[in-house]
Amino acid sequence: MTPSVRLQEMIRIIRSARTQGEERGVIQRECAAIRAQFRQADNGGRSHNLAKLLYVHMLGYPAHFGQMECVRLIASPRYSDKRVGYLGAMMLLDEKQDASLLITNSIKNDLSHSSQYVQSLALCTLACMGSSEMCRDLAPEIERLLKSSNSYIKKKAALCAVHIVRKVPELGEMFTPSVRALLSEKNHGVLHGAVVLITELCERNPETLDAFRKAVPELVQIMKGLVTSGYSPEHNVAGISDPFLQVRILRLLRILGRNSDTASDAMNDLLAQVATNTDSSKTAGSAVLYETVLTIMDIKSESGLRVLAVNILGRFLLNNDRNIRYISMTSLQKIVQTDHNAVQRHRGTIVDCLKDPDASVKRRALELSLALVSAANIRSMMKELLTFLSSCPPELRAHAASGIFNAAERYAPSQRWHIDTILHVLTTAGGDVRDETVPNLIQLITTASDLHSYTVHKLYRALVTDISQQSLVQVACWCIGEYGDLLLKGDCEETEPAEVTEDDVLDALETVLQSHMSSPSTRAFALTATMKLSTRIRDNIDRIRSIVSIYGSCIDLELQQRAVEYNALFKKYDHMRAAVLERMPVIDKSSPGHTNGEIPGGTVKEPEQLKPKPPVTGLTQQPASQVCDLLDLLGGTDKPSEPSLAPPTTAATSTNSTVGGDLLDLLGGLEPTPVPTVTVYEKNGVMVKLQCDKHTDTAVTITLIASNSTENDVTNFTLQAAVPKSIQLQMKAPSGDVIPAQGMGHVTQTVLLHNPSKATLKMRVRVCYSSQGTMCQDTVQVDSFPSPVEN
């Protein structure tokens, strides 16, 4: 029966449909007609109907009823039927369909067909949708075709063998002897298939990798022939001879040369030749050069060759194509630690990329610029970074500020320069800095005793100019409270002193207290500064008392508590006010008592204890042994890795003043009590320890301490915890989300566990972070907890 509508006519009708409903109506009518014709025993238009059905499938409509028709057409002796049948099998069938098993015998027969085109159809179908069972059954046939005299068939067979190796890796040994012989072929298609197959075999089997290292000289000769060959219209792409094959060979050489001195030496000259003779003005040439650079950096190449590779990446930075600039900076970011001096030569070009309008390129340029900062170029690089910070997109501002802080702390030429740099960042991006920035800057200011007057003058000017940057306002309020007497004296040699009166200072602090832009914590800084000024000024004590008393009935509990306590100092304990509000001692960052966003071992606990979260009504009580509750809470089903119990680490117990240290000396140098900890996670240089601060029958307070021993900061660090349903969990806010490099700081997070049923404690912790641009996520289970710091 002749089809009522031809394929071209059906396509025309579907495309002319004005609405989706009209299109569905056309397709439904055609599908009904196709079904009716499929049911007829003698139908000469089966291939035509299946072709129409494949077009319907491409539009997203169901076409599964054509699967058995594919099987029938594949078994047909006519090539035109087989072509459509195999195409339908590749589109409508996969290894999960039972119908795919029915074509195994047909494929085996067609692999031995006299026509190379029929063999090609069978090879393409097997490579596209062959299941593990089909691959095992037909692997000997593919190995036989690899030895065929027909280049067309050998090319298809090599690519089909790649699919078989991916599906059934243990079958790779079957193809190893045959594929080595394909390297002597002149046909580029066969060579390309052979290189891809060898790459797959080497990546999956170390023994095969060692065997194919002997083929490096052959690969080098093939590559040299491609580089030095003249113009060939068949393989030339933008002046490059077969860049696809060149890229594949370079990738294979990278695998073979990794951790092998002999193989690396054999390809050094070739890599130098490719790097110097390849034209990078076209995309094809850039692709070959990029693979050459990756190969040079991954094998044990000579130092001069590595410098040449860095210079190629430097040339890529000048390319007009943003994609090429992006991959160049991505590669430089990976090698900046090992070839720092070579990358430094392109510092100017990298800094210029900070002005690129593309956000991705700008982010990569920022990361690379921060990695290039050193003691020799800190001033010039910081100038460029501060300029970038003033105009960078909001999504990059926090990362830029964090990187500037780390670089300034590591390479600051002087304390004044360090303070000026941080104040500049706070003035520009004070709302995007990390939480620990304020205590870090306060610590820096206290240690620079000769700069107190200079700093308080500069911060006062910044406070009067702008109170929208909360971090800057908090530091300014703290400095004014501590060193307000130096501000009122106006004695400052480093900068032009300003005549500031007591009323001016109190007006500035009162503006902060009354501003709608001030957060509760900022108001707390301002209120404390106002109170501290009561011991540093003479004529406005009554005004200070009036300001403090106003906040005794503030709706904010923190401010209200501070105000009530300060009022008590004015009234009941006025004789102690001067001693209580005296200037803070110099804070030594290395001292045990200074946490600065970090948790050294064994800190003295605050008097008030954190209360566990009250029981939630309707919470189903479950036995603590049900680990599935943990799985439900974290959404995972994989068994987590068990944390290794580390021996208790000994750390100095911190004290709030030097009195504790003197007492230990009087007692004959007694050592502080060690704080037991458990290492719950250690991977990629990131370590998370668990410290038990308080442990009762029904409540546990623990602290998770994360450190970073790598050369780069760990960013986007988050911790998640889950416990059985019989235990209630409350997580406090973390101290930050960036772990400084080389153990320069920690990130801590307090977890409160309320255990009214006294069940066995179990906790599962998920660790997420970004290290060198790679997101990492792991889950560990904690079954044992250390002894508490205090009982």
Automatic annotation (TrEMBL):
Chief localization: membrane
Clathrin adaptor alpha/beta/gamma-adaptin appendage Ig-like subdomain domain location: 670-786
Family: Belongs to the adaptor complexes large subunit family.
Protein keywords: Cytoplasmic vesicle, Golgi apparatus, Membrane, Protein transport, Transport
Region feature (Disordered): 587-622, 637-658
Protein name as it appears in the record: AP-1 complex subunit gamma
Gene3D superfamilies: 2.60.40.1230, Leucine-rich Repeat Variant
Regions of compositional bias (Low complexity) in chain numbering: 642-658
Localization of this protein: Cytoplasmic vesicle membrane; Endomembrane system; Golgi apparatus
Membrane protein topology class: Peripheral membrane protein
Source organism: Chanos chanos (Milkfish)
GO biological process: intracellular protein transport; vesicle-mediated transport
Xref: SUPFAM superfamilies: ARM repeat, Clathrin adaptor appendage domain
Annotated InterPro entries: Adaptor_Complx_Large_Subunit, AP1_complex_gsu, ARM-like, ARM-type_fold, Clathrin/coatomer_adapt-like_N, Clathrin_a/b/g-adaptin_app_Ig, Clathrin_app_Ig-like_sf
GO-annotated cellular components: AP-1 adaptor complex
Superkingdom in the source lineage: Eukaryota
